[in-house]
Amino acid sequence: MNFNIDAQKQNTYDAIVIGSGISGGWAAKELCEKGLRTLVLERGRNVTHITDYPTAMTNPWEFKHHNRLPPSFREQNPIVSKCYALDEATQQFFTKDSEQPYIQEKPFDWIRAYQVGGKSLLWARQVQRWSKFDFEGPARDGFAVPWPVTYDDLAPWYSYVERFAGISGNKDGLEGLPDGEFLPPWELNCVEKHLQKSLKSHYTDRHLIIGRCAHLTKPQPWHTALGRAQCQARHLCYRGCPFGAYFSSQSATLPAAQKTGKLTIRPHSVVHSIIYDPKLGKASGVRTVDANTNETIEYYAKVIFLNASCLASNQILLNSTSSRFPTGLGNDSGVLGRYVAFHNYRGIAYADIDGFEDQYYFGRRPTSGFMPRYQNVHKQETDFLRGYLVALSASRGGWGHAAGQEGFGADWKETNSKPGPWHLYVQIQAETIPKFENHLRLSPEQKDKYGIPQLITSIGYDDNDLKIIKHFHTSVAEMLDKANFKNINLVDDKRNPGLDIHEMGGCRMGSDPKTSMVNKWNQIHHCKNVFVTDGAAMTSIGTQNPSLTFMAFTARAANFAVQELKKKNL
Ligand SMILES: Cc1cc2nc3c(=O)[nH]c(=O)nc-3n(C[C@H](O)[C@H](O)[C@H](O)COP(=O)(O)OP(=O)(O)OC[C@H]3O[C@@H](n4cnc5c(N)ncnc54)[C@H](O)[C@@H]3O)c2cc1C
Fold it and tell me: Could you tell me if the CB of 23 is within 6 A of ligand 1?
């Protein structure tokens, strides 16, 4: 008896954070800095900053397979192998398909990074604020439920996370893509500047800007205090950055949390469910399975932050059943797992341009050009709802393009030493509409190796998405033609949902507990001491890269949770 009480005490913290990726790292930092003894439960292995980036300094010729993965790897891992960032240098940060099987009722590529740091080690670091048009979208256009949060509510939190993370960008003064707290921007190259100028002369609603990204172009004292240094423009980021020059949990939030002396991280802790105490009317803790021993271990806290990433957080909530919540924690509304959305990346364009052969660029820029959404911004104008942003980059074919060709000797070397022609790559990033039928649920029969029911994904495209791709192709072809690009090639790569790695929803935010799962503070309506602050809580998804918004919501919710704890409301 005494022993059990001691064990419970030992496993009790002020706060528990589930997941240590982009959003979990922020929750840990904020809760620790505000004085809470915080336990981070992470299902993957530990990854120590710098020492666990084994390929960060590896030269191309030092890789066993020339930085390619052998066919056997791809055969065994057909899902993760589709991710563009996976190669021999980065494969240690990607979760292999067999680690967590799931059931694709409709095709969905679930890309995961189970380790301390999560996908923060692998992300492409593009960050854009939402605008008022994004928060107002569902109410104006009559889809989803209205957001209970406005741009003005989130703006100070955007500033807060941007300053700490270090975001490079230009103050472009665009209503549809608000400016933030920026470090110096990267530069558009000559072909991109040419396109920018052409757009300005032909349109009033289209702007080409340099991408805003979470890289230290000019580190500030609070960055260097954490051991972070300036970006070296190597663009080997997906291997882990030994300079701490891009924002990751390892480079930024976890060391800040560690500095407080309040942080405990427990890797290899697969969260099975959140424990609900009907007497208290709130959650009392978290049930985990130790990935090494298969032992079930429970941890307890006054407040729980769920940050396992969108699909995994839904899975944990759906599996957190009790007599009070037989279909998942807080799921009185029946919307848990519903209204999942993702970014439509299917539209692509390639083009060439003549006339800039005397110009080049410096280094490997870790960002690209962006055109913020220019469709349906102020009012509904098209036969589809919402819209898309355009990401693009121009580059010169160089020794890379020649290296793909067979050859040897002086002539071949000579060809390789000359920069090739200019190419442009253009990609859509379109909003999809959260729909009731696009959902997640648990398999009643099939479990994973930890005894957790497997997730069923039932998420697909609709007519709106196809109309958007068509519009993108027509619109991009017109813009490139006006700017004298040639060989314009329009592609629909028909990729599965999920490969965008921007999945959101399932535990959506709203004012009405009958139609939403969390309130405006990311607090589960019917279980107030559980906060869901990753992509699962997104009501709609905008066109922007999502992680900055997850960071801002997380910092805001953590601040609120600590105030509520002080008032003894949790
Ligand atoms: C190649 C790539 C490029 C990307 N580019 C961009 C970009 O440019 N801009 C952008 O905004 N976003 C980008 N993303 C997406 C971005 O990485 C995610 O939006 C972000 O990481 C989500 O943060 P998160 O905290 O929700 O999840 P994650 O960062 O994935 O962290 C979740 C953590 O929870 C842990 N976990 C999961 N299940 C459990 C469990 N049951 N028990 C315990 N722990 C668990 C995981 O191991 C992981 O560590 C990209 C992603 C990838 C892979």
Answer: yes
